[in-house]
Amino acid sequence: MNLLAIDTTHRTGGVVLTQEKSVLEAVAIEAPNGFGAVIYSEIEALLERTGLTLQDIDCYAAAAGPGSFTGIRVGLSVVKALAEVHNKTVAPVSSLQALAHAGVGKYRAAVMDARRQEVYAAVYDDHLKLVVDEVVTEWEEFRASLYNRSVTFVSLNSSLFDNDEVSTSRQGVTGDENQVVITERPLTMGVAHIAQTLFEQGKTVAPEMVDANYIRRPEAELKWKDPD
Length: 228
Hints:
By secondary structure, this protein is of the alpha/beta class. The protein folds into two domains: 2-95 and 186-209, Nucleotidyltransferase, domain 5, CATH 3.30.420.40; 97-182, 2-Layer Sandwich (Nucleotidyltransferase, domain 5). 24% of the residues lie in helices and 30% in strands. The strands form two sheets. A six-stranded mixed beta sheet has the order 8-7-6-9-11-10. The chain is globular, with a radius of gyration of 17 Å.
């Protein structure tokens, strides 16, 4: 099974190609002028290096947001177009869930800067199942909602933790109760991992069913729910 996953939702995007759950190659992409101008050429070059063609891809996956609205649309448009042309299915993956994949520990609080003093946030367990639903909310409100539970914060934004007593690094630092992991890597490895599971479970969708995950839900409720 060949899977092509992309992420264009943040400043550093990427493309990854997997075959039978093994990573053939992963590429990070910097696109100051927008991913739309480079993503197809990056995919073409990756396939050429690995000796595969678009017809060999069984499933296309993309980070579906939250993130840059333009970036989300670019990524989803690419996988929808390729899947439709080659009669394949798509695995849209939450960017927060893909971010949680980079974390450690039983509970992983994935957090992204949503601007306007808000964050996109959710908590997943170590099987990447939701414990606190994805929301957009004030940063301090989200932290308070955790009720001092021990979690690993996983984020792309070190500035969220600038006022904390716990210092942060790309490797992650252990505090008194929590860990903080800051990653600058593309989310594509998490996207590919989650998409592989969705494909095996028959939960991928037709291209026309793909939708963005903007999480602009003002009625969203912060609620901890222990997984089954």
